[in-house]
Write a structure and sequence with these properties.
Structural class: alpha+beta
Largest sheet: 4 strands, mixed
Strand content: 15-25%
Radius of gyration: 18 Å
Shape: globular
Number of helices: 6
Strand order of the largest sheet: 3-8-10-9
CATH class of one domain: Alpha Beta
CATH topology of one domain: Elastase, domain 1
Length: 260
Amino acid sequence: MKVKLPVLVKDRSVADYKDIDPTEEFIVDSEDVFLDGPVTNRVAVLDFDPNKGSLAQPAKFATPQEPGAYGSYQAPRNGFDDPSFMQVVVFGGVMKTMHMFEEADNLGRRIRWAFDGLQLLVVPRAGDWANAYYERESRSLQFFYFTPNGAGKEVYTCQSQDIISHETAHAILDDIAPDLYHATTPESLAIHESLADLTTLIMALRSRALASRVLEQCRYSLEHPSAFTAVAPEFGMALGRHGHALRNLKNDRKISDRDL
C-alpha cells in the first residue's frame, strides 16, 4: 500500500521567511501495515495529552477506497496547533529519514533497531522541556515542548524537521554501531552528533521547495551559511541562541577548541 504523508520542509520560521509552504508530500510504500496513530510495523506514534496526562486520540488512518489510490492520515493541512498534525508530521519526518538511509547507495537494507523490539516509539509531546532525544532503553524518540522565557507561544520540537531527522539518525546509527551508544570519549560521542547533524543537512537539501528557493537566493553556491546549514532555527531563536539557530554547520570549529 502507498500512503501519502505531509512532512515539514524545515520549521515554520524558515518557511515564513523563505515564503514557501511549510510542508510537502512524501509517499511511503515500504511498510506492510498502517494503523491509527500513526502506527506501522516499525514505527509507532504514542502521543500524550498534556492536559490529561493520558494518551491522546491517535490520528486516524483513511484506507484508500479504490485501486491505485493513496492511503492517508486525517490531519488538517499545516494545522500546527492540532495534535493530529503533530502526530502525522513527526511520523512522516521519521519515515522520510529512514527511507533516505535505506536507499541503495546508502545502507541498501531495511533498518533494524538496536533494542529488542520491532517498533521505534515516537512521542510528539513527551513533556515540558526544551529538548528532544533518542533513548535505547525506552525504545523511543522523545520530543518535548516549552514556552520561551516562560511567556508567549509554546515551541514544539516535533515541529522541526531538523530535530526529527537528527534524533531519528541517532536511532539509526545505534543500529549500525551500537557500541557508540555508551561511549565516554568525546571523539566517539562526536560521531553520533556529527552524523545526526549531517542528516539534517542532507534532508534539507532533499526538500525540493526549500532547495529551489535557497539555491536561487544563494546563486547556486553552498559556500556560505544558509537555511541548509542552520540547524533548528525556530528552536534556536526560542532559546536566544546567537545566530538564530541551535547551531550552524558552516563553521571552522574543532573538537580541540572545546574545554572538555
